[in-house]
Write a structure and sequence with these properties.
Elements: E1 6-10, H1 17-26, E2 34-38, E3 53-56, H2 73-78, E4 83-86, H3 89-94, H4 99-111, E5 115-120, H5 124-128, H6 132-144, E6 154-157, H7 171-186, H8 190-195, E7 197-201, H9 206-213, E8 220-223, H10 230-241
Parallel strand pairs: 1-2, 1-8, 2-3, 3-4, 4-5, 5-6, 6-7, 7-8
Helix pairs in contact: 4-6, 6-7, 9-10
Bound molecules: phosphoenolpyruvate (PEP).
The site of phosphoenolpyruvate (PEP) has 14 residues, from strand 8.
Length: 246
């Protein structure tokens, strides 16, 4: 089965309205690749570009109510969001988000018609201890227990040691983990596993995107730093498009 790649930018807590406007003017889309941008959430309501989808960098696990500072999936849907990142390693680290909470966020997103981009990945210490598969399995376990959710998610493998560091997993190492993620889904539902989009994230740049995206189980990229520059993001989109048969 051929899976349309998804290239998604994550601006994190960077950028201003004017920078976003320039980015939207300069970004070049192609029908071969799905593309999305996660700017800081307060810019979502005013962001529009035909053919480009938008995502939030986080979503509350709760529905509307007493959760000061949080945004519900219904609100994000209301302003035209299509995606929501859940479980980004910075949320896990700085906001103590647990695997269970991340799965609840994915569930809340799906309930409102958003596609959760479910982030997983090991730290350098965990990789050096040979614990990659164990860590990924633990991060996925509460999600895989949600039969109504697993067919509606995108997974992003983002080794923590590669995020914002300039270090990228080799395409072979990334492929190995992506294949493992797919087998974890296949153990629950083979059809869902075959159609699952698994993005790679961690210092994706124009010069490494083509090789990463050419791997059989890498179905696109989650791009942090390089997505702040439309020209770099365009090159990554083109690299992903080049892997799609004409
Ligand atoms: C990210 O934050 O999701 C990310 C992959 O960042 P970077 O591309 O800057 O490593």
């Amino acid at each position: 089965m051929s899976i349309t790649p998804l290239v998604m930018g994550n601006w994190k807590m960077n950028g201003r309205a004017e920078a976003l406007q320039h980015f939207l003017e300069d970004v070049q889309l192609t029908t071969k690749v799905d593309t999305a941008l996660c700017p800081p959430s307060l810019y979502l309501a005013s962001a529009f570009k035909a053919g480009l989808a938008f995502g939030a960098q986080d979503v509350s696990a709760e529905t509307d109510g007493a959760r000061t500072g949080e945004l519900s999936a219904a609100m994000l849907k209301d302003v035209g969001c299509a995606y929501a990142l859940v479980g980004h390693s910075e949320r896990r680290e700085y906001h103590a988000e647990t695997n269970e909470l991340v799965a609840e966020k994915a569930s809340a997103a799906v309930a409102q018609g958003l596609v959760p981009v479910f982030c997983v990945g090991e730290t350098l210490a965990q990789r050096e201890a040979g614990e990659v598969e164990q860590v990924i399995a633990e991060q996925l376990a509460p999600l895989l227990a949600l039969p109504d959710v697993i067919g509606k998610v995108v997974v992003a493998y983002e080794p923590v040691w590669a995020i914002g560091t300039g270090k990228t997993a080799s395409s072979e190492d990334a492929q190995q983990v992506h294949a493992y993620i797919r087998t974890q889904f296949a153990a629950v539902d083979a059809k869902i596993a075959a159609a699952l989009r698994i993005l790679y994230g961690g210092s994706v740049k124009p010069d490494n995107a083509a090789e990463l995206c050419s791997m059989p189980d890498i179905n696109g990229a989650l791009v942090g730093g390089a997505s702040l520059d439309a020209a770099s993001f365009n090159e990554i989109i083109q690299a992903a498009a080049a892997t799609v048969a004409a």
